[in-house]
Amino acid sequence: MRVVASAVVLSFFFAQASLASEGPQPAPLPPPIPVARDVPFNGQITLDVDASNLSQRIYRVRESIPVQAAGPMVLLYPQWETASHAPTASVAGLTGLTVVSNGRPLKWERDTVNMFAFHVDVPADAKALDVSFQYLSPFSLRQGAVVMTASTVTVPWQNVVLYPAGWFTRNIPVSARVTLPNGFASATALENSPGDATGFRTTSLETLVDSPVYASRHVGRYALARRGEAPVTLNVFADDERRIAIKPAQLDALRAMVQQAGKVFPTRHYRHYDFLLALDDALPGPGGSEQAQSSTDTLPPDYFAGDERDLINADLLAHEFVHSWNGRYRQPADLWTADFNTPVRGSLLWVYEGQTEFWGRVLAARSGLRTKQETLDALAVGAAQVLAQKGRTWKSLQDSTNDAIVTAGGRSTSWRDWQRREDYYGEGVFLWLAVDAEIRERTHDAKSIDDFASEFFAGGALGDTVTKTYTFDDVCTALRRVAPNDWATFLRKRLNTHDPADILDGIEREGYRLVFDGNPTDYAKASEADSDVQDFSSAVGMTLGKDGMIRSVAWDGPAFDAGVALGMRVESVDGRPYSADALRSLLTVAAPQRLTLGLSANDAKSSVKIQPTGPLRYPHLQRIGGTPDRLANLLTPLL
Q1: CA within 13 Å, CB half, 243
Q2: Prediction pTM value
Q3: What is the residue-wise DSSP string for 355-404?
Q4: Burial of 95 per CB tally in 10 Å (0-12, 13-18, 19+)
Q5: CB 317 within 8 A of CB 254
Q6: CA angle 352, 357, 358 (to 5 degrees)
Q7: DSSP β-bridge partners for residue 296
Q8: pLDDT of 482-541, one tens digit each?
Q9: Is the peptide bond before 181 cis (omega within 30 degrees of 0)?
């Protein structure tokens, strides 16, 4: 029987092989790109970047790359960006590439699979490759990631460097210099070469790319650390000298934030730290990117000069500062790679980003960047947004850690709450609130998440910026040292849950419940204004732009069930021309009646009827009587 069966199986496979050979076969792939190895690199790259062409926004780059061996060589253009955790860099801006050795042009060929790799055949007598190219900054955010504007010059080194494949970037020394427009002053975490205002001390390629340069005509510099401590400087870049002036109360809060961060995180791995803050709405933002000894941040031009406080972005600098510890000094093992072209994995982004978002909220409250009530209101809005993610029924928070790669390159989400997108930020806040509550309960309020931070981010010495990686088990081990518990089960349950009740248990165990009423908080109003929408989600499941354009539709909500979609415009409500105030007035009564919306899309008009689920409601946190106010303790400044 066994012999017969074998013959039958073999005849089957031969038949399949015969069928498979009848169609086309894959074309051969190009030669493999050398894998990065932890070996010394002989010599150093010299890199000269001319960033002075402000009108045309052209960077001109010259490099000299020491040859390590004759024969095939691959030059790489960075593709994976640390702060985005994804292959978000674009090679489209690299133009005019030439490679020369001993005065002779060398032929190069772009890899036919990896567009960020360039093959060069190095002759036997070559000592160095002289490389030149231009990097073209987009002129508007619609064209891509703007890095130079009419008033701000940034030098993101990953956009202006090619490097040889086959080495850890931390082993490749680089001597870099930059030319800026006349009259521009700059700041960076890099240290200048002695007596050279535009050149920098030789450093590793890894550190260089982690240390961008910002420049503008008007720069304000503010010391945030106390005398005798490792310096922390806020560098503010703007097109008007009046915009770089910071009010005393604002500066006091930022200094308090730095002090409170120092009480949470014990390690001083940076010799100095620089906030590089551009007040420029032509750059991508508001937002920021983290580095070990700096952060690059963008806020509205009148962030400091305006009369109203920016409640939404009040914790931006705190978030990026925390990343110096959580993300740069300590980094998930599967998120760290040896070069800028090896794919990363983000399974622990709920730690890297989620815990950082959590500490940003906490430090903003402890320092006065937000009041306690504003922080409670921010948490209420965040909790409501997290609960509204219908996609949790099929997609877990753990799976959401892949979103940075899934949506890389500006891939949009048409149904945000169903597809989910990088929810490890917002939902991560409530995961770590639950961790804090668990620690406090298990230690009878003797310890908290502050003790975990002190444990997990300990070690290292001043100036020790070498990344220390960690795994899921390392996180659990550090938590067990603070409060014995089966932390693996605790965390996995929340990371893989499809039950929205698991989202709120941290808030409730901290002493608060989420409630809704018809009165929006100042934070809720600011959140709506920051998104530039009129938010009718709680009643009809959609948000609208000021012009009536539909900006989002909640999956399975009333508008969704009526067939409403993005790209439509609301022209009328119950036969009257649309206005946000008129629609809001219809949705604030106790029992809103069915609405008739007139819609237009692609020159076609239609009409739908929508039954609101109830009046407009807004989130608040309410104290649970008879329970410890652990959240108040968490938000109280450390002494």
Answers
A1: 20
A2: 0.93
A3: HHHHHHHHHHHHHTSS-HHHHHHHHHHHHHHHHT-GGGGT--HHHHTTHH
A4: exposed
A5: yes
A6: 105
A7: 276, 289
A8: 999 999 999 999 999 998 888 889 999 999 999 999 999 999 999 999 989 999 999 999
A9: no
